[in-house]
Amino acid sequence: MSPLPLGAGCAALAAIAVLATASQADVGQPAPAGQTDPFRHVQALQDIAAANGGNRAAGTAGYDRSAEYVADQLRAAGYTVRFEEFTFPFFDERSPPVLVSGSGEPEPFTSPREALRTLMNSGSGDVTAPVHAVDLGLDSAPLQASTSGCEREDFAAFTRGSIALVRRGTCPFQVKVEQAQAAGAAGLIIMNQGTGDQTGTFGGRLTTQASIPVLGVTTEVGRRIAEAARDFSRSRVRLKIEAQTGTRSTRNVLAERGETSGSFVVVGAHLDSVTEGPGMNDNASGSAAILETALRLAKEPAAGTPIRFAFWGAEERGLVGSRHHLDALSDEERRRIRFYINLDMVGSPNFGRFIQLSQTERSAETAGIIQAFIDHFESQNIPVEDRARNQRGFGSDDAAFAAKTIPTLGLFTGAGNPKSDEHATRFGGQAGQPYDPCYHKACDGAENVDRAVLGQMTDALTHVLRQVGSRPVLPDR
């Protein structure tokens, strides 16, 4: 679909040129002379994490200190800041999951530990029981998409008290859990589907709390467990998950440039980290870029389209903060949001430069903003790529806005998936290696953030929002 004009006075709102490629020779370089460096905020958030248990997860002191830091910076620049409080289901794994043979001796399928991952909102438990494979369909060649554990009939011959082994695929994890619980399973192991790129370690989140332990494993580990289950003497395994669950409170941080009683735009990033680490690329980088942009624009007149700057809580818990914000708005208020720009991971060490679209079609607004980003990057001789979001299992707060039919786009430099040869040629870096090797890991510290690409993404955002803020107020959608 061809880009559409934005309408009178808005064509220059040029668009989101996604991740322009910066030379790897620029890695680690500070901001240009005279330009403030967003990395200072990354370092501040790193210090907060280090002083608060090593992470900034929602519902923890580390997150609360992070929210206070952002609010203090915005207030000092002259913004009126408000906190938006909400509660969320809390899940905290207290120790790594255990999967060993019933005899207590480790079996090959339990190593390495990275091959195991507890699903969020799993139940806790320490269970030793036989494994019962459920409609795995592992004998077909090539493997087909799996419906394992999706139907009640799959558990017709299931032995109550056993640990169910199912394949990922076709239906949500929650459905598999509910079918297993109804069949009397003492625990559930979900192996990756084994088709395409769905073979390795994976994470997931259940929509409601499970009453049994639920563990995700790689395809290879799943096959070994399935083979062991054929031999009754080897079929018993010990599955242990220790987790704390409940409800906690947290908050979004919001500030506005201009009066949002009419049409306005929203720019947001999630401020929380995962519990496994400090979350400097994911997503202190996005928060730092937006915070630095807001501080730069605070020094200039705000006479055009108003901008709401948002720092979301509990994104890593299921986009809870952004969804809460949108649900609290009236239909009329949501209609006044022209578009949403999301920044999630904009400092990846083996970076690309991308613009991600949640919707399959571009609106007039997103087409114009994308072009504005592209024009900016091209003026700097920096490569960019404009693409639809196509990573299975990857989601960010733009999905919450897209679900409300609000046009969205997002700046992104890559997560834990490997970089293609094409992108290595375009952006530099190492093909076959993750864009971010520390994605959702303890090593996602300040040293994991590429300072140069973070600066480039911040400069691009500042440039485009400066155009947005200097144009006449957009008419309502």
Number of helices: 11
* Quaternary state of the chains: single chain
Termini Cα gap: 20 Å
| Number of separate structural domains | 2
Which class of the largest domain in CATH terms?
Alpha Beta
Poorly predicted ranges: 1-28
Class by alpha and beta content: alpha/beta
Strand order of the largest sheet: 1-9-11-10-12-15-13-14
* CATH arch. level architecture of the largest domain: 3-Layer(aba) Sandwich
Shape: elongated
Provide the gyration radius in Å: 23 Å
* SSE topology string: HHEEEEEHEEHEEEHEHHEEHEHEHH
CATH topology annotation of the largest domain? Aminopeptidase
Strand proportion, as a percent range, falls in: 15-25%
**CATH superfamily membership of the largest domain:** Zn peptidases
Instruction: Give the overall average pLDDT.
Output: 87
Q: What is the makeup of the main sheet?
A: 8 strands, mixed
Number of strands: 15
| Percent helix range | 25-40%
Q: How would you describe the overall organization of this protein?
A:
- The chain has 477 residues and is an alpha/beta fold.
- β5, α3 (173-182) and β6 form a beta-alpha-beta unit.
- The relative contact order is 0.20.
- The chain has two domains: 24-91 and 246-470, Aminopeptidase (3-Layer(aba) Sandwich); 95-241, Glucose Oxidase, domain 1.
- The chain contains eleven helices and 15 strands.
- The strands form two sheets. It has an eight-stranded mixed sheet, sandwiched between helices. A seven-stranded mixed sheet has the order 2-8-4-5-6-7-3, sandwiched between helices.
- The two termini are 20 Å apart.
- Mean pLDDT is 87; it is low at 1-28.
- The longest helix is centred in the C-terminal third of the chain and has 20 residues, at 451-470.
- It is elongated, with a radius of gyration of 23 Å.
